[in-house]
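Example 3.2
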Amino acid sequence: MATAVEGEVMVDNSVKTEALALVEQARSLKVTNAEEYSHACEFGKEMASRYKKAEIYFDGLVSPAYAAYKNLVAARDAILKPLDAAKRYVSQLAANWQLEEKKRAEAEAEEQRRKAIKEEEDRKLEQAQTLAAEGRMEEAEQVLEEETIPVPVAANTQANVPKVAGTSSARIRYYVKVTNLTLLVKAIAAGTVPVSMVVPDQSALNRMAEAVKGQLDWPGCAIEKKAGVSFRS
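Structure, written as tokens:
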């Protein structure tokens, strides 16, 4: 019987001892002739039998524990997932309002800048007209030709956003949604997208290799072989 001590599961010592002894014996085996082959096969059958017993032993421990784990996870998710979704909804509401306030403040600052430029241009025109009326045409032309330097107006983007402790400023996060895998793969092949952006499905590749008995000739893939025999307890 297994017990738990401070989070560590204590396995039946006999199960552990038998398993480790078999492992050590397996490592010392050699197969160089028919007699050693027969011995290795008999030993393999013994290992298969011990493996099955150990599997049954642990299944009796793992199955109820896993069932309890799944129930706890389901109970947790029933509470945390709706809470997380609601939190993200409120976060988006607050962020959207912050961003709208930022746009409004920036638009207001731009309007003030344009107004200042217009006022400066009107002043220059009035000054030029005065100079022209006095017959000072060259000076009037110089005034009109002077470049109107835009007046910098800083946008106070947080003016109407209350400071709430524990709340950050709005941040925009960016995500990628693959809409056409073929185009992405072609871009990787062309070198315009890093190859690290995709990961091969090794399980699917292995199943394909098994299905065609290794007769696979795909670019970038090499067939590897591992020999083995099966043992029935």
